[in-house]
Amino acid sequence: MSQEYSIYFDKRKIVLTKSVEAHFNNQLGLFTRYDTLQELSKILEFFQTNTQVQNVFISGRDLQTTLNDFLGLFRVIKASGGLVQNGKGEYLFIFRYGKWDLPKGKLEPDEKIEDAALREVSEETGISNLKLDNHLTNTYHTYRLGNSIVLKETHWFHMLYDGHEPLIPQKAEDISIAKWVSPSQMNEILRNTYDTIREVLSTAGVV
Question: Which of 57, 71, 123, 160 has its CA 20 to 30 A from that of 27?
């Protein structure tokens, strides 16, 4: 199990950790513990109200309970996506909303997480016959939906592809580019992507 979970609020984040003390020397922010759901809710309210606070590190009884408690404070939307690698060792990226991203999307009703990951990659990039390898990590970020803030939990999988189909970016999803990127070109991606994507690439050992 992970030693911590980062939940991104645009450029700010809340880190759920086993030990806040582990971050004292190399991180700036607020460090706190909680014992009850009411206390956790107040910490979240403080963070959302005081936008000058960039990072908050929270620990509780155990990490999985802390994550479950935190997710319980939001409407959670589940999504799934893939880090696809071809036979040349290149990785598949898309360009959407002015940033480099990995193909992903929301689960359909009663859809399995693995099936959603394969479907979304295929729909957003135009390729098929993907092979699911292993689960990499889950990432968490919030965004505004109507008048409320929702939390998206995205399950990421490593996938393999050995075909030669042309990449077709899904215009209906505002994807303007789909392309294979070699490890030597990864700095171009890192300069203009999301913190959650950096987290996936780090977990996979790509960067």
Answer: 71
